Amino acid sequence: MNIQALMQQAQAMQKQVETNVEQAKKDLADKEVQAEAGNGLVKVTMTGRHVVKRLSIDPSLLEDEPDMIEDLIAAAINDAVRQADELSEQTMTNATSGMGLPPGMQGLFS
């Protein structure tokens, strides 16, 4: 096989991966995950790019101790981050699938 043709093919694949990854990042900014803690007393909505869109605290919770409220908020945010990470990994894997990248290489593009 001609080395020139191989290099052109590699460049075309690289450009396609970059295009797919950019589109995946845009898609992640529009996708949302929702998490909750304390049986729904605290709810968090976050985008796939880790932007918190909404934080909801049940009014009955405000009568409790601040430490518990803070713990529930942290738990809900941490769960939302975990979900957003999973969504991002899945989206990036889909964006780079079929490109012949070795496992784990998708993380280089996020």
In short:
This protein is of the alpha+beta class and 110 residues long. The protein has 2 helices and 3 strands.
Protein model, in words:
The chain has 110 residues and is α+β, with helices and mostly antiparallel strands. The protein has a domain at 29-97: 2-Layer Sandwich (Ybab, Chain: A). It is built from 2 helices and 3 strands; from the N terminus they run αβββα. The chain has helices at residues 3-30, 66-96; strands at 32-37, 42-47, 52-57. A 3-stranded antiparallel sheet has the order 1-2-3. Strand 2 and strand 3 form a beta hairpin. The two termini are 33 Å apart. The relative contact order is 0.17. The mean pLDDT is 86.
User: Major sheet: order of its strands?
Assistant: 1-2-3
CATH class of one domain: Alpha Beta
- List the secondary-structure elements in sequence, H or E: HEEEH
CATH homologous superfamily (4th level) name of one domain: Nucleoid-associated protein YbaB-like domain
Looking at the chains present, what oligomeric state does this protein adopt?
A: single chain
Structural class: alpha+beta
What's the number of extended β-strand segments? 3
Rounded to the nearest angstrom, the distance between the terminal CA atoms is 33 Å
Broad shape: rod-shaped
